[in-house]
Amino acid sequence: MGAKNCPETPRQKMINMMYIVLTAMLALNVSAEVLEAFRVVDSSLLQTLRAVDMQNSQIYSSFEQAYAENPTKVAEWKQKADDVQLQSAEMIAYVSSLKDELVNYSGSSPVNEENPITDEGFYHVTVSGETIQIGKSDDLNGPSELMITQKNADKLKETIIAYRDFLVSQINEEDTDLMETILSELDTSDPKKRSKDEGASKTWESEHFEDKPLVAVLTLLSKIQIDVKNSEANVAKYLYSEIDAGSFKFNRLGARVIANSNVVLQGDEYIAEVFLAAEDTTQQPEIFINNRAVEVKDGKATYKGSTEKSGVFKWSGLIKYKTPGGIIKSYPFEQEYQVSKPTVTMSASKMNVFYKGLKNPFEVGGGAIPNENLQVTMTNGKVSKVGDNYSIEPSALDELGKRTKVSVYATIGDSRRLIGTTDWRVKQVPDPVAQINQQSGGNIRKEILGIQDGVMAILEDFDFEFKYTVTEFTVETTGAGGYTNRYPAKSNRFTPEQKQALQRVNTNSIVYIGDIKAKGDDGSVRDLAPISFKVK
Fold first, then answer.
1. Is 500 within 8 Å of 480 (Cβ atoms)?
2. Which residue, 48, 193, 376, 513, has fewest beta-carbon neighbours within 10 Å?
3. What is the average pLDDT across 463-469?
4. pLDDT per position as a tens digit, 68-91
5. 386: domain range?
6. What CA–CA distance (Å, rounded) separates 288 from 291?
């Protein structure tokens, strides 16, 4: 058990943190903005208080229902829960009365037609339900006088300690996590000194109530009420879980059906277990399926449905159980299952062929068969699992698709079945196109040509992430007298000689780039078509 049974919500944690920050700001300045922030936090705390109270009411309702069904087994734990509810209500009421007293001590006025509620005012709802306007929300003297001088803070601390000890007494010693949660939520220890030079040690009472404005004190008391309600919820849930494991949690009593699958393949067996949840091992229920009594073992019955034909089939039943009070209760249920013929769909994620040298994405759908029950194999290559899909890596080219087959098997029950085979073509990755300045020829300005770094190999309109890199090329230009000059390069970048030649070319002359070779990511080398440009 422990805090995990009723943890603080993120909203409540945020509010608590805001309270700490605002309290620290009080040491600097009691501004109108700080007071307004406290009012907002207090309003949020009160909303949270109502939400936790509703949650606690549901727990106590569960106790009432369980007690009505089986008073012998539930009585001990319900009595403890009733005591927790009573003590918590008294604790909340005591803190609420302190709020009323603080507001009246610092001055207040009733809300009426002459004094209506406004957005600028600070208001408080008393224990009797009357809404009153707080006269001095920034009052520092009243709270200190009432809580410190008149010792009401001492009494509050003693009351919290007594309530905390009472809650701890309801918990078994081995449930240390829950005990630590209660002790932490209702902690009243004195704060530690932050430094040796800080001066006299503060007490829990002075830390929270001395020289604090009224609105901050009211917010703190709302926080204490939240801590009380959370502690109550933790202990109430713990007590409910301690009801004898052999008895029902009657608020969850109902028919349960567990099938091996609601969708089965034609020819396979549909099996479902029918049982009464949280069964009482001292007696067996009666179970009827399709109006016929069936054998019950360990509180369960087994139903086997026909799978000879495909389609959707419905079945129903009734569970009868005698409560400890001798009352026969009936719990009807309805179920359906679907019988499907084995089907499989296969598709290459990018195109309708496989490419040699690439990891081709491949998707498989088994219809009603879960993906985890499918296995994919192939001829002429290998298959790898990638997340929920697959990767296909062909070994050799197969332009006609005669040697490349992909097969899908399914594990159904205890057997492995072939549910589909398809033929695929394996093609070579297409040749790239040589480009300069994203052009494969045509007119180009001399100044643009002069700033280019080299020749790129581009795969146009190809969906895969596959790259080619130019490994060599030759630049040809026309020099004086009409002679052709050739300048080779052994990479994809222009050599210094090539750059000088490009800078010397005349307008309207032709620059020819040929002998282009490019190497792909798969290691293959391609001869690319030459490109030419007219210099402008």
1. no
2. 193
3. 86
4. 888 888 888 999 999 999 999 999
5. 345-427
6. 6
